[in-house]
Specification:
The chain is an all-alpha fold. The chain contains eleven helices and no strands. Helix content is 68%, strand content 0%.
């Protein structure tokens, strides 16, 4: 008898999964870049857990999987940045200069755009959130694609308690991020929004 499929939040993109997905579609230098990003992100987030008790890195690996398998966006910089997009927030060692040196200025730029000072509280946190959304609005389409892929993965994990206030998370997504997708009129962003709307209907039903 077949084993039951694991719950979504219990899945992740292994290193071998990643290789199988992109090895024949990227050149050797690009493949090395992506695998380097996978290793760095895995190391930085090694001891982190999400609110659902799963390893934080699983979330990052799934964001990369969304970019590759669902959006079919086989861009080495974007896949690498998807894996690395939280390393500046969660490491006291990794800096933008380290990312530039090990990867590229563009990958570092994407990660910087997607980095938020999560240690702020109160009014400072509200201002940081506002600045973050504004920065994203004027960033490259690649930054937006990663952000929406990350948001989609979180939507898929809401039923498992990954966010303390799932309905507040949905409300903030629709208020702050949906307008960015509408402005872009980008097929990939539109597909993600459509999927997030489907998940919302399921949660509210």
């Amino acid at each position: 008898m077949d084993s039951p499929l694991p719950l979504y939040n219990q899945t992740h993109f292994t290193r071998q999964d990643l290789i199988d997905a992109i090895a024949t579609k990227l050149d050797p230098v690009e493949l090395t870049t992506v695998l380097g990003a996978y290793e760095m992100a895995s190391s930085v987030h090694e001891y982190q857990r999400r609110n659902d008790s799963t390893p934080y890195f699983w979330h990052l690996s799934r964001v990369a999987r969304i970019v590759i398998d669902e959006l079919h966006y086989l861009n080495a910089d974007v896949i690498s940045a998807a894996l690395l997009h939280d390393v500046l927030e969660d490491s006291d060692i990794i800096t933008a200069e380290v990312l530039k040196y090990n990867f590229s200025a563009y990958i570092s730029y994407i990660v910087e755009v997607l980095t938020k000072n999560i240690r702020l509280l109160g009014m400072q946190r509200e201002q940081e959130d506002s600045d973050y959304v504004e920065r994203l609005r004027f960033s490259s389409i690649d930054c937006k694609i990663i952000k929406f892929a990350e948001r989609l993965d979180n939507y898929r994990c809401l039923e498992f308690g990954v966010k303390r206030n799932p309905f507040g998370y949905i409300e903030a997504t629709e208020r702050d991020y949906y307008p960015i997708a509408r402005e872009e009129q980008n097929e990939m962003l539109d597909r993600i929004v459509e999927e997030m709307d489907r998940i919302k209907r399921k949660l509210f039903s």
